[in-house]
């Protein structure tokens, strides 16, 4: 049994599930362990099959790999040693480097634990990933009306990831200079752009972004039920200016406009992503800010 641990906020779960799909595409029978995860924040409670139509969670027994979340020194050592055993192997990689041969470690009775934040893991199974992440229909009249509007104009989603918990735990979120430069880039190449701002911290936006005409999409929650709606709406825009956030990343990746412009920052997680081409597709525009 090959298992992939899935546990985090929605967007990181999407990377983990996409990694699992890439293993399935290689002919492996892959199970998901999302029951071991213990959420710390409300935004980590959203499960994939509550948001997407085609996500198929083939669950493993919660007790199959009991050391998944054990972080004390002794059990961490046991997990590292297990990787060289023939059974009950824990393959744990929490760094953000792309590991092109990690799938070769798959064997009978092993679990992959990590974020797997790189589109290159599932590049060969892109169609399966896009199909899996088909959103369920929007059920709010306000969102449905906006979705209709977004596809009829030169809409540009601008995402500000500035939640207080996010600011505390992750360094180097995008500064105002990045957004001004990105907006000017869009204005240069997109005729009559209509900017739609999405954020989880509107105080930050009001204090830092001035002189830009925009529509504020400020009615969807940033955690709990319906916290995916901003991602869904951003994916419907013609173009995207994203933050250095996986939530933001997926909104642009799932944008189906063949002529989309995606502007993204150079800094991801304070330099923890060492090779930008592992997280930024070639066609996206990188701005220093």
TrEMBL record:
Coiled-coil blocks: none
GO biological process terms, semicolon-separated: carbohydrate metabolic process
Record's keyword annotation contains Glycosyltransferase: yes
Q: Which GO terms describe its molecular function?
A: galactoside 2-alpha-L-fucosyltransferase activity
UniProt keyword annotation of Glycosyltransferase present: yes
Q: Name one GO cellular component term.
A: membrane
- Keywords recorded for this protein, A-Z: Glycosyltransferase, Transferase
What is this protein identified as?
Glycosyl transferase family 11
**Organism of provenance:** Phocaeicola dorei DSM 17855
């Amino acid at each position: 049994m090959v298992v992939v641990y899935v546990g985090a906020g929605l967007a990181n779960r999407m990377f983990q599930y996409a990694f699992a799909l890439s293993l399935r595409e290689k002919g492996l029978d892959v199970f998901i362990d999302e029951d071991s995860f213990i959420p710390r924040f409300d935004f980590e409670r959203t499960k994939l099959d509550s948001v997407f139509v085609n996500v198929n969670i083939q669950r493993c027994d919660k007790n199959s790999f009991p050391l998944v979340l054990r972080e004390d020194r002794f059990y961490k050592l046991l997990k590292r040693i297990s990787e060289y055993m023939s059974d009950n192997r824990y393959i744990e990689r929490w760094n953000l480097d792309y590991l092109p041969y990690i799938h070769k470690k798959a064997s009978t009775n092993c679990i992959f634990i990590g974020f797997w934040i790189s589109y290159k893991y599932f590049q060969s199974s892109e169609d399966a990933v896009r199909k899996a992440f088909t959103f369920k229909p929007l059920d709010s009249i306000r969102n449905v009306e906006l979705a209709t509007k977004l596809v009829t104009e030169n809409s540009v989603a601008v995402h500000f990831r500035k939640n207080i918990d996010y600011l505390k735990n992750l360094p180097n979120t995008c500064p105002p200079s990045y957004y001004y430069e990105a907006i000017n880039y869009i204005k240069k190449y997109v005729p009559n752009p209509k900017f739609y701002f999405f954020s989880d911290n509107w105080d930050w936006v009001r204090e830092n972004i001035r002189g830009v005409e925009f529509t504020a999409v400020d009615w969807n929650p940033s955690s709990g039920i319906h916290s995916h709606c901003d991602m869904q709406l951003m994916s419907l825009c013609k173009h995207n200016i994203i933050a250095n956030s996986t939530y933001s990343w997926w909104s642009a990746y799932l944008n189906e406009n063949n002529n989309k412009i995606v502007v993204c920052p150079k800094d991801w997680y304070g330099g923890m992503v060492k090779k930008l081409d592992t997280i930024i597709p070639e066609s996206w525009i990188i701005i220093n800010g």
